[in-house]
Amino acid sequence: MPASFDRRRFLQTSGAAALAVGVLPRAAIAADPLTIGIVYVGARDDFGWNQAHAVGVKALRELPNVKVVEEENVPETDAVSKTMESMINLDGAKLILPTSFGYWSPFVLDEAKANPDVQFRHAAPLWKEGDPKNSGSYFAFLDQAHYVDGVAAGLASKSGKLGFVAAKPIGIVLRNINSFLAGARTTNPNATVQVIFTGDWSLPVREAEATNALVDAGCDLITCHVDGPKVVIQTAESRGVKSCGHNADQSPLAPKGFVTGAEYKWGTIYTGFAGLIAKGQPLPNITFGGYDRDMVQNSPYGAGATEPARKAADAAIAKLRTGAPIFTTAIKDNNGKIVLANAPKDNYAEPLNNMDYLVEGVIGSTH
Amino acid sequence: MTAQLAIVLTAMLGGAIRVSTPFIFVALGETLTEKSGRINLGLEGTLVLGAMLGYATAYLTGSPWLGVLAGGGAGVLLGTLHGLLCSLPRVNDIAVGIAMMTLGTGLAFFFGKPFIQPEAPHLPSIPLADWTGDPALAVALRVNPLFFVGVAAALVMAWGFRNTRIGLVVRTTGDSAAAALAMGVSVNRVRTLATATGGFLAGIGGAFLSLYYPGSWNEGLSSGQGLMAVALVIFARWSPIRCVLAALLFGAAGAIGPALQSVGVTQGYYLFNAAPYILTLLVMVGSSGSKDALRAAPGELSITR
Hints:
The structure holds two protein chains of two kinds. Chain A is an alpha/beta fold. Chain A is 37% helix and 19% strand. A two-stranded antiparallel ribbon of chain B has the order 1-2. In chain B, α2 packs antiparallel against α3, α2 packs across α9 (187-211) and α2 crosses α10 (225-235). In chain B, 53% of the residues are buried.
């Protein structure tokens, strides 16, 4: 890495020089808004993870005296360090929100150590005791919204055979699948969920193949957990089956078959952070929640959601808001092994955090 | 058991037809270029740029077929650039190809931003098996016209290489530049034209990706299909007909992973998802011993020379 010309340093010093000779107007220095920097790994309008964050940022922009700087398509390499430094040094950001999993170590950790007066909050449950105090994690339990998807799917599907296109068999994905089934079983005790793992986060051709394969196998409602659900939802619509979304609102993609979808509501967390900083209060190191803390939501019902499905989903949402648990009995995996002898005490109980199994009723395998 | 086998076979048939088309176009384009004596590794970039421009054009004009033309046009531009650069003395075609790959994907990502969200009109398909009343078979045999265009292009190319003067000129240029010069042929012009035409075909392959299957534009759309298609050319030993067969085989193998999971064979899907690559390796190892493999390679290619 040649340590040649530093654009940031240059702009900084030239900016300071400009100030010294009084070139900048007074107003540019007089106002003191809170500047928040957001870093995305992909495009802001990808119908997926990045769009969900961008929707949250929109809520942030509506706050008075908050300035937002954004950068898209920042790879999980030292490129993200440069982006964060530029936001801190050039734009004067006091809170940085890097939204991709791989930004955390070492990039966010290093920047947090180097900039102790800047707050860093990262969108994955990775912060632990011993990490810099000005860094932290925030995350929302999307499985609660997938559970609501399942409740509606159990009634919207005629066959009770539901399909799930998933990227990789890791904890958060398995948890969404299991909660989807748990929801479906509340409205159709015979519902099954058939899973196809594609092997990676963004493989459009294989996602389309997987959707076709599930429909061919008799599934009449498809949902997914991949980076950009657009292909899955469109393919399901073109095959004439119903669909549930993931991450952001996909209802415009499936005017005939869309039921509802699991969405993040990052706006709650983001405006919460801004409010704490405005009041001069410290930010928590770990922030998490689900329906009970208004951090997830479901997409507006589409034409695929039947009247009973809407009613049942509304009721499920009302219960989740009060903190009602998703898993109410012992948990058995789909090999017949009992993995949890007692129902977990709530939706954030420790044993749920490391799911490495698919529950009974899911057709699929974790390896 | 037989029912499950039927599902998997139907899925493989459908997958072969759906997935193979971009491979057919890119592989045919590369065959033409390599037959003239150059390698264009940049077709991955052409595929991505063709997909983006095809989608953008279809969205802005409302006509998917104009999108297909725009995708081909993007390929002609990138191909011509590659051809002209490689006509300069001591320029390595492989290095230029890698540069073109980066250029094509970079341009596509840069200009493609506003087109990730909108929905462009799709290319139509021809229902070949709706009369059977079997829904799975009907869907598997809903075939895009571009598939037939690709197959026809392969037949025309195979016939043209053998029976026309143009075919002879391209082959001579590819096998021996000295012989082509003696015939009074401008070697660089033939190769540039061959690369531009090859780019046209690859660009159409890209438009198929964004306008038919999977049918939307995003940055992960190709995920290396252009590179695999270039490898398929060696696999097909520079024969247009075998390019089509190789692409069909590759598409069918790619459908195995999802299809097996859909009938309940859920273990080991990482292995099944790798089936196309394993199959390609096996066939290549199996066929590399034969003398035909060497005889088919154009003599002027920088890898064989």
